[in-house]
Amino acid sequence: MKKRYLALIVLLSTFLFGSKADSSIWGTDLLTHILEYDKEGSLHMGYWFTLIQSTYVKPMLLFVLIVIPLAFIVHYLLIGPKRFSHEGRSIMMFPLFKRINHGIAAISFIIIVPTGIIMIFGSTFGGGAFVRFCKEAHAISAPLFFLSVIPMLLTWFSRMLLSPKDDLRWLKIVGGYLSKEKKPVPAGMFNMGQKIYFWIVTLGGLVMIATSVALYFVDFEIIRPVLEYYSLSQIDFLRISALTHNIIGIVIVAMFMVHIYMSVFAIEGAYKSMVDGKMHEEEVKILHSTYYKELQEKGEV
After folding, report:
1. How far is C-alpha 202 from the chain's CA centre?
2. Is residue 174 part of a domain?
3. pTM, 2 dp
4. What is the torsion angle, in degrees rounded to the nearest 10, for the CA atoms of residue 195, residue 198, residue 199 and residue 201?
5. How far apart are CA 116 and CA 106, in angstroms?
6. Is residue 124 a part of any domain in this protein?
7. pLDDT tens figures, 214-232
């Protein structure tokens, strides 16, 4: 399975770079496309793109990168991590395929998130070869993410559907993370926080992939009739794609940071469940009480 994944990644990456090299926007049609950018009927998004990109995007990302870690530090010092007994019975939560798939997504995010941040603050990092390298690494990791997000969407879809009774109660107590007590928390196999993260990353991730394709290939001869129908020039389409990509990206960066904190620091040893697929019984009983009752009814615990 891993070999097939790797072969597909290499194939997609080769196609990605090869197709860009042949794009007409970089060849004889370059001047034609540039002259069309300011045609009558264009949305003229240059002003708004510059305003939003330079005035709001960077400060929003900087806010996320500073405030969220500070909030985590305060939480860790005042509340501390939840600790559960690692003795006795363990419950299988994540089969091998789901763990491999999650691992692929994790690897892609470890590349995508920092390289994306460096690209946005490119001038701060001095531009040049380092930022260009991050740009290519960012692009290469996109097929890796795509290969993981589709199986995740399909295999976890039913468990990630909202359950208003439990999810609203979970939100009301913030999953019990603002208390040092270990009381049963209303949640199925996945709690409301995990569901929010899942839907933002999968659906938002698909939008990110679509906009990244637009930004990477630049040339859109195939969809030119659609752009013309909506009186949308290629440059305005690129600007919309860039803004959408960056804004959703900031939200995903914030959620990724929360995900890391919860799995590594907020719940002691939680990350191990994605290594061996198991969670200890007390942890399931407390943090996923509804799911634990479901297992009891089936006679599995």
Report:
1. 7
2. yes
3. 0.83
4. 150
5. 15
6. no
7. 887 766 666 777 777 777 7
